[in-house]
Amino acid sequence: MIDTLDDLDVEGTTVGVRVDINSPIADDGSLADDARLRAHVDTLSELLERGGRVAVLAHQGRPGGDDFGTLSPHADRLSDLLGRPVDYVDATFSQAARDAVRSLEDGDCVVLENTRFYSEEYMEFDPDRAARTQLVANLAPVLDAYVNDAFAAAHRSQPSLVGFPTVMPGYAGRVMESELDVLGSIEETPEPRIYVLGGAKVPDSIDVAWSVLEKDLADHILTAGVVANVFLIADGVDLGDASSDFIYEQGYWDEIDRASDLLDAYGDRIALPRDVAVDRDDSRHELGVNALPPQEGEAAMDIGSSTLAYYERLLEDAGTVILNGPAGVFEDDRFELGTRRLYGAATDVPTSIVGGGDTASALRRLGVEGFSHVSTGGGAALQMLTADQLPAVSALERTVDAA
Ligand SMILES: Nc1ncnc2c1ncn2[C@@H]1O[C@H](COP(=O)(O)OP(=O)(O)OP(=O)(O)O)[C@@H](O)[C@H]1O
Ligand SMILES: O=C(O)[C@H](O)COP(=O)(O)O
């Protein structure tokens, strides 16, 4: 049982609110999509209107990634969306951050700097240990309560997600509450159940594949995106140097062995692409897997038309489809076809659940709509749909009682 904002006496309370506003970032550093910020408006508005003093905690990107950066543009955008001033401080738990939090008055909001600018935040801890990290130990004394609205990051056991509710009363925000409500009953969704695993977070997808196949939750897994490329290599297909180098550079080379083990154990339930699309002479060019490897420098950027026809046939019989991650590099018009058609076919399945920040942004861009539920979370939604407990949710369940 988790307490929600209904259980929090907000007025005059200084609340640390963990949100997930991790967003695509344009080349000039601005936000390329604000959907995740919009999702949290209800929670933040409610807290501010009820007289709360709100300190927003969030991450942006992963250390070393192109989208790793400051939350300053997020604060500006939140101010527009909330229709009130939102301060930003370029510190997360230092004296400057604590002073900014202490000086909040009822109805004020400040965004603290990217929690991942600080190295312990990118490590996974059990909640008790997380409570002793620098972030929690330094910031908790200036907060009265903690609200976790970051469903999309709830599968990470990082300090800002599991540490605070160990030392102060923790509550679910409105996004967290509604996601847990919708996604908490996977066993009740109609069968057969198909999982579509695409996108670029290969280790997360392989974890999910193991889990849903072992628990007999999935009748089929359709692979797409970089996940499919890893499975194709595991199946002995020569995808060429460009795709292999990309997988190696992402640090996913070991995932090929894990994919191979999965194919050995459950190959009859895992569908692999029959063709892929590459960039040849600046155009989309499709190649059957028998015609691979592609020419030098060509990478598999999307699933091809034969694969789409095959996947569409499988989806025709599905009762539930759960999708995460684009089928290809949808940002490039030549490689959006797989995502457009695969997700389009999924809207005809009686229960269709979509997860993922990039996925949701791809679907908006492509104008594909009509799903039963579009989750703010990618990996988190998938983990929830494996019927596994999310660490940040467990931490809220075990939170300390309000005084
Ligand atoms: N074949 C491919 N080669 C390279 N990149 C790909 C390919 N297919 C998809 N991608 C990239 O995958 C990225 C999205 O993957 P990701 O796993 O982050 O999805 P997501 O929906 O954001 O999920 P999450 O919310 O878990 O992060 C896109 O930027 C897209 O260009
Ligand atoms: O985009 C996401 O899935 C969440 O913000 C979590 O980000 P992470 O995968 O970098 O932990």
UniProtKB/TrEMBL annotation:
<dbReference type="GO" id="GO:0004618">
    <property type="term" value="F:phosphoglycerate kinase activity"/>
</dbReference>
<feature type="binding site">
    <location>
        <position position="36"/>
    </location>
    <ligand>
        <name>(2R)-3-phosphoglycerate</name>
    </ligand>
</feature>
<feature type="binding site">
    <location>
        <position position="156"/>
    </location>
    <ligand>
        <name>substrate</name>
    </ligand>
</feature>
<comment type="subunit">
    <text>Monomer.</text>
</comment>
<dbReference type="Pfam" id="PF00162">
    <property type="entry name" value="PGK"/>
</dbReference>
<dbReference type="GO" id="GO:0005524">
    <property type="term" value="F:ATP binding"/>
</dbReference>
<dbReference type="InterPro" id="IPR001576">
    <property type="entry name" value="Phosphoglycerate_kinase"/>
</dbReference>
<feature type="binding site">
    <location>
        <position position="331"/>
    </location>
    <ligand>
        <name>ATP</name>
    </ligand>
</feature>
<keyword id="KW-0324">Glycolysis</keyword>
<keyword id="KW-0547">Nucleotide-binding</keyword>
<feature type="binding site">
    <location>
        <begin position="20"/>
        <end position="22"/>
    </location>
    <ligand>
        <name>substrate</name>
    </ligand>
</feature>
<keyword id="KW-0808">Transferase</keyword>
<feature type="binding site">
    <location>
        <position position="116"/>
    </location>
    <ligand>
        <name>(2R)-3-phosphoglycerate</name>
    </ligand>
</feature>
<dbReference type="GO" id="GO:0043531">
    <property type="term" value="F:ADP binding"/>
</dbReference>
<comment type="pathway">
    <text>Carbohydrate degradation; glycolysis; pyruvate from D-glyceraldehyde 3-phosphate: step 2/5.</text>
</comment>
<keyword id="KW-0418">Kinase</keyword>
<protein>
    <recommendedName>
        <fullName>Phosphoglycerate kinase</fullName>
        <ecNumber>2.7.2.3</ecNumber>
    </recommendedName>
</protein>
<dbReference type="InterPro" id="IPR015824">
    <property type="entry name" value="Phosphoglycerate_kinase_N"/>
</dbReference>
<comment type="similarity">
    <text>Belongs to the phosphoglycerate kinase family.</text>
</comment>
<feature type="binding site">
    <location>
        <begin position="356"/>
        <end position="359"/>
    </location>
    <ligand>
        <name>ATP</name>
    </ligand>
</feature>
<feature type="binding site">
    <location>
        <position position="116"/>
    </location>
    <ligand>
        <name>substrate</name>
    </ligand>
</feature>
<dbReference type="GO" id="GO:0006094">
    <property type="term" value="P:gluconeogenesis"/>
</dbReference>
<keyword id="KW-0963">Cytoplasm</keyword>
<dbReference type="GO" id="GO:0006096">
    <property type="term" value="P:glycolytic process"/>
</dbReference>
<dbReference type="InterPro" id="IPR036043">
    <property type="entry name" value="Phosphoglycerate_kinase_sf"/>
</dbReference>
<keyword id="KW-0067">ATP-binding</keyword>
<feature type="binding site">
    <location>
        <position position="156"/>
    </location>
    <ligand>
        <name>(2R)-3-phosphoglycerate</name>
    </ligand>
</feature>
<feature type="binding site">
    <location>
        <begin position="59"/>
        <end position="62"/>
    </location>
    <ligand>
        <name>substrate</name>
    </ligand>
</feature>
<dbReference type="GO" id="GO:0005829">
    <property type="term" value="C:cytosol"/>
</dbReference>
<feature type="binding site">
    <location>
        <position position="36"/>
    </location>
    <ligand>
        <name>substrate</name>
    </ligand>
</feature>
